[in-house]
Amino acid sequence: MGDPAGIGGELSLKAWLALRATDLTFVALDDPVRLERLARDLGLAVPVRVVATTAEAQQEFRSALPVLPVPLAAIPMPGRPDPANAKAVIASIEQATKLAVSGDAGAVVTNPINKAALYQAGFAYPGHTEYLADLTGATGQQIMMLASPMLRVVPVTVHASLRDSIAMLTTDMIVAAARTTAAALRHDFGIASPRLAVAGLNPHAGEQGALGTEETTLVQPAIDILRADGIDVSGPWPPDTMFTAAARARYDVAICMYHDQALIPLKTLDMDHGVNVTLGLPIVRTSPDHGTAFDIAGKGIADATSLLAALELAGALAERRVARPGG
């Protein structure tokens, strides 16, 4: 569902229009009344059909957008998040996760949420990623990857201030993130020998200690441990040069020390096709790499490219998991 006041509903409608004649199908966990109203208001020819199961959704997909109903408490107003609807947003995440864990769905693809509205309703998690980890019993193992055809990045520290991110960074965190990433690239992305590039924390990767010592005390020890594991890892890379076209050709993923070090280059290079992938879960989960876009909600101009990329990547990862020995 995502936040009902954001662009998630519009994206779902547009995604169905783009995919209805393909082999990739999905079911929306949303309020069917609000989707019908939204389609009418935006002039989108999307018939909405309530279904009871994912199997029924697959049968109906070519003729209508199938919806497993999650009723809202209040009529959503574009651009104005309402904490009254927070329970429905949370319920849609829970229901989608249960469907994926049970095997009734191949993956979970989430539309953007508004964390502030959820926090007002008592939501105790920083975001989707941490909540999904708790729901699936993978707490502490989840890693956020942003992936596009041009670049993959993993931030070791995520939703924390820059000051707090630097303070909390440890060698063990770098090692854990890199191990999870390497395993996911092998098993889910089909890269037999993934190449990991580890970013430095400081300008010029510390300039041999002149601009900071974290590369020596935190990052290099992690690289040594990973190499001992047999992982193809390089670094510490100077953060200001590791995202050039020539540099990107030398690795499959960049392990970055904090949120913006990872997300700024990816969103600059390929915002439209970027996908948020949660690694380390027993289920496949993806989402668009953008937010709720309250400023354009309800105007009919939202671009569904990132959601389509998230759906397509989720389908590919789910198929690879099914085909892999052991499922």
- Secondary-structure element series: HEHEHEHEHHEEHHEHEHEHEEH
Structural class: alpha/beta
The pLDDT mean sits at 94
Indicate the proportion of strand residues.
5-15%
Shape: globular
> Number of DSSP helices?
12
> Can you list the strand order of the major beta sheet?
4-11-10-5-6-9-7-8
Q: Distance N terminus to C terminus?
A: 28 Å
Helix content: 40-55%
Total count of strands:
11
Low-confidence parts:
none
Major sheet summary line: 8 strands, mixed
Q: Rg from C-alpha positions?
A: 20 Å
Indicate the topology.
Layout (H helix, E strand, L loop, with lengths): L7 H12 L8 E3 L1 H11 L5 E3 L3 H7 L4 E5 L16 H17 L5 E2 L5 H6 L7 H8 L7 E5 L4 E4 L6 H7 L2 H17 L7 E5 L14 H15 L3 E6 L7 H4 L4 E4 L2 H12 L4 E5 L5 E4 L16 H19 L4
Parallel strand pairs: 1-3, 2-3, 4-11, 6-9, 7-8, 7-9
Antiparallel strand pairs: 5-6, 5-10, 10-11
